[in-house]
Amino acid sequence: MRRAQVRSSLERNGLRVLVALTIAFIFTPSLYLLIISFDPSLLPGIPAWNEISLKWYRELFQQWRLPGALKQAALDASLTAVFTGVLALFAGLTYRELKNKAYFLALLIFPIFIPGVVMGLSLSVFFKLLHLRPSLWTVVLSHTLYALPFATIVILVSFSSLKESLIEASHDLGAGKFKTFKDVIFPLTRNGILGAALFGFLLALNEFIRAYMVSGWQETLSIYMFGQMKSGADPSIYALAGLILSISILLILLALLYYAFIRKRSAITEG
Amino acid sequence: MADGIGDKKSKQQSEELMGKEAREVNVRLVDVSKRFGKIVAVDSLSLDIENGEFLILLGPSGSGKTTTLRMIGGFEVPSGGEIYIRGKIVTNVPPNRRETRMVFQDLALFPHMSVGKNVEYGLQFTERDKKKRRLLAGNSLASVSLDGFYNRNVNTLSGGERQRVALARALVTQPPILLLDEPLGALDEKLREQTQVELKMMHRELGITFLMVTHNQEEALSMSTRVAVVNEGRLEQVASPEVLYENPETVFVAGFVGTAKLFKGEIIEDSAEKSKLFSNRIEFFVPSGFRKGEETTLVVRPERIKLGAEAEGKENMFEAKIQDILYKGPALEYGLILNNGEKIRARVDSKSITETSSIGDTISIGWDIKDCKLVRS
Fold this sequence. Notes:
The structure holds two protein chains of two kinds. By secondary structure, chain A is mainly α. Chain A is built from eleven helices and no strands.
């Protein structure tokens, strides 16, 4: 009995260490980048306390190409989010009513397995065939195509918790298809739909290869950063990375706070 | 018809007849079938459900009873046949354009709406006045003893309360036909019995047609005005609970409704008053009606069997060995084994047994011809 307890506490501690190592593995590279972005030297490393400076951040904001790239990236990501969210929602609604679900799913998910370079190349050739000039729209189209399978999976997971009988009950009470969607399906899967759109946003923001191959003079953030790195430019690139990271962390903290607030409020109303 | 007046008259007559039919028959199923791939769930089922009756579709799981109900509600489209509701063909009409309302097995209350909003939901399509909707919903809630529940969260209700909300929601629009898909399945024993009584009372007060599905034969017998027994997608028998219990027409009904001992055998003698059945080395005196040489099944209910001194002089009398005795309050249930090895159960009044008998004893068992039935095998 005691031995079992000792072993289980050992196991528990072992697991804790493993979890800590995993988390460290995930976050260390990004944090390292964030830290070195405050080092003013030309070959940045971990700065000493008295050397910490915002030099590269100042440099970053003086680069004239950056605001354009940021704007393009934001537009691209937002449009992709909307398109992906809507299309994935339609895919999810269709999936519910299909008989041969497996084939439909396979067809939708398949693009995940096409390498980015291949997809980017085929898209750029295809757009040329259609006489579509490289533009923000070709980038958005490519990104929607890229994000759709992932977003659809998110939607399907969200839909799987939606009980069929609720939809039937709505029809039974007199609601047509659209009314049922508005009153029952959407409110109960809103988070999944937002999640799918968010997936589209993030994937578009981070994607490089496809964007690189189908964009014209428009630079997305990834293309801009890639360009900066290739030209061996100054370490302001670290500042940019640090900026993105800081904003992300801030957003996640806000989301967590909001979630905690909602939980507390619903606990009060139900208690 | 050459005679114009006669023609008109007969047309008028037939219209009257149709009108009468439309009034009395609420739901009519004509040769309705439903196939799911290769599986035949419902096999050309025909049934008339009359206005104001409480009809229960009874059958084991997989018998097609729920599929039948769902076709009437519009949630499944039949593979063949026609469905009429109040005289109109509705076979392909979607649920939102039918006059039926359904209480779902899992109740299907909208979890993101309050109790009141749930009940009000169906009203928005018929009642434009918001205040009136709210009033009607409140009344409907009151009719199921849920006054003051309007603003409650449906997720915090008890099982019985949720049940009532589902009923209020279905009844608020005053549908002519209420469909109930095993609505008592999730309730515990006590609440179940209470709800049975309440549903029956509600049916009497509202006077509308109730059509319910259950696999529980006791529930079917005690609640309905008529029971339709369904097995393997086919209708076995439609009858009042009494007739169904006393005069089952098929072996399946005899075995499924109530408990009964079935002896499968062959008629070896037939006459006007009584016949003789030979089954597994035993001869029984049975009611007449089948001819010599026919295969039939004898049905004996446990409560029709007499034991000990009371069995003496019965037309069918045998010796049996007591295997078990169950005390059931007002009744004692004996598990008996006949000489040919067949097991049979007998249920007698606790007070009627004067002699003491215990497990292992041999006892006389008997019943009269009028206490047993023959059904076609």
